[in-house]
Amino acid sequence: MTVNDQPANNVNGSTELNEDEIRRIKTKTGKPVIGYICCFAPPEIISAAGAIPYRITGKPGKDTSSADAYSEPYGCTYVRNILARAVEGKYDFLDGLVISHSCDMVQRLYGIWTYYHPLPYSYLFNVPHQLTPWAQRFYKRELGFFRESLEKFTGQDVPDQKLSNEIISYNKNRDIIRRLLKQRKEKPPRLEGSEIFELLLAGGTLPVDSFNRLLSEKEVQFASRRPVNGNKPRIMIWGSIIDDPALFKIIEEAGGAVVADDTCIGFRVWEKDIPVTADPYDGLTEHYFVNFQCPRTDRGPGIKRFDYLLERAREYDVDGIVGYCISFCDPHKFDYPDLRDYLKKEGLPMLLIDDNYSFEPEEAIKTRLQAFLEMF
Amino acid sequence: MSHSEMSRAIRHLETTRKMKDMLPRFFMRMMERRFSNEPLAWCMVGVPPELLKAFDLLFEWPENFGTMCASRLVAPKFIEVAEGDGYSPELCSYVTNTMGYCKLFKETGEAPEESPLPGGMGTPAMLLGSGFICEPRWKWFQSVATRFFNVPVYSSDPLAPPWDIDPHNPRIEEHYLTLLREDLAGQIEFLEKQTGKKLDLNMLRDILSLSHEALGYWRDTLALRKAVPTPMGSTDYFHAIIPQMYLVGDQEAVDFYREMYEEVKDRVERGVGIVEEEKYRFIWFGLPPWFNMGIFNYLESFGAVFAYESTYNVGDFFDVDLSDPLEAIVRRTWQRAVKMHDYGSEAMPELCNPAVFGGFVGSSLLDELVDDFSLNGAIMHLTRSCRAVSFGEIHTKNRLAKAGVPSLVFESDMADPRLWSDAQIKTRLQAFLETVDRAKEGGKINDS
Ligand code: SF4
Ligand code: SF4
Question: Which of A57, A341, B263, B279 is the S-S candidate for A243 at Cβ 3.0 to 4.6 Å?
Answer without folding.
Answer: A57
